Amino acid sequence: MIRIDELFSxxxxxxxxxxxxxxxxxxxxxxxxxxxxxxxxxxASRDVLRxxxxxxFSITFDKEFEGVIQGCAAPRKTDPATWISDEIIDVYxxxxxxxxxxxxxxxxxxxxVGGLYGIAMGAAFFGESMFSLRSYASRIAFDRLVAHLKxxxxxxxxxxxxxxxLQKLGAVEIDHEEYMMQLTHALQKKIVFL
Length: 194
Prior knowledge:
This protein has 194 residues and is α+β, with helices and mostly antiparallel strands. The protein has a single domain, classed as Leucyl/phenylalanyl-tRNA-protein transferase, C-terminal domain (Aminopeptidase, 3-Layer(aba) Sandwich), CATH 3.40.630.70. The chain is built from seven helices and nine strands; from the N terminus they run H-E-E-E-H-E-H-H-E-E-E-H-E-H-E-H. It has a seven-stranded mixed beta sheet with strand order 4-5-6-7-8-3-9, with helices on both faces. Strands 1-2 form a two-stranded antiparallel ribbon. Helix 3 (65-73) runs antiparallel to helix 4 (86-97). The longest helix is centred in the last third of the chain and has 16 residues, at 137-152. The protein is globular and about 40 Å long.
């Protein structure tokens, strides 16, 4: 079982956990290239801005953490495997109860249709995963997260490993050394997430 103190130590050194879909063993990852979002230059797409104006989705924070992490762990149409094992779910639920793990939920007509979760430490937010059952549900939640982090004075939004979806949202890759400098700086600042 992952210990909470071990998890905090790992994040502060640039590691994050992932489980192998085959054996569900947890491994510590620290990629040489890191996907991050620049909070100062992030811009929402026109579609996200349009849907935000229409109030098609309602967004909440920390209202349904377990529903979000279960949604993120569910198999996707294109890939039935998941890196989010039961062990990871259990430890992040504990972190949520302790006030370190947070969820941003996207609701449509009272139903949870998307969202994301991550960990807040200092002025860094480590985005773990997102899911969407309705087009743009997770993107609207992500846009609200960025606005929240900017408003609170966060310095780093870590997206871990680049993929086409993150790139479309505006993530960029930086070298490990640059990431560690940004992380060290961000962890020195104390911010309350909510």
